[in-house]
Amino acid sequence: MAKKNTTPHMDVQVLRESEARGSGCREQPPAAAINFEDALKELESLVARMEQGDLPLEESLACFERGIVLTRACQQSLKSAEQKIQMLVEKDGRAELQPFDSAD
């Protein structure tokens, strides 16, 4: 008895239409090549597109994967900035907390 193929697949026509439109998620520069502000802007745009709910499954997954990459890149940028700030305020080998004066 032949085993039925239960692997989910995308309709070929839907895939072709999606590729013709361009997903906007697959052919993007690496997140490391984008500055923090641009990565955050792209991430916000991806979230807005995905929240509309009209993307095909494969395109949604590609956008989700891109979003994860962008999120990690943003987190790394923030961590790096935090480390630089900590090094700048470090005195005598100890980090000293200094109040933030928003008036400056």
Which terms would index this structure?
104 residues; Helix Hairpins; 2 strands; elongated; 3 helices; disordered N terminus; mainly alpha; two-stranded antiparallel ribbon
Explain this structure to me?
The structure is a single chain. Helix content is 58%, strand content 4%. The protein has helices at 12-21, 36-52, 57-89; strands at 90-91, 94-95. The protein has a two-stranded antiparallel ribbon. The longest helix has 33 residues, at 57-89. The protein is elongated, with a radius of gyration of 21 Å. The termini are far apart. Mean pLDDT is 75; it is low at 1-22.
Average predicted confidence as pLDDT: 75
Strand order of the largest sheet: 1-2
Provide the gyration radius in Å: 21 Å
Structural class: mainly alpha
Distance between the termini: 77 Å
Shape: elongated
Uncertain runs: 1-22
List the helices and strands and how they pair.
Elements: H1 12-21, H2 36-52, H3 57-89, E1 90-91, E2 94-95
Antiparallel strand pairs: 1-2
Give the structure's gist in a few sentences.
Helices cover 58% and strands 4% of the residues. The protein is mainly alpha-helical and 104 residues long. The longest helix has 33 residues, at 57-89.
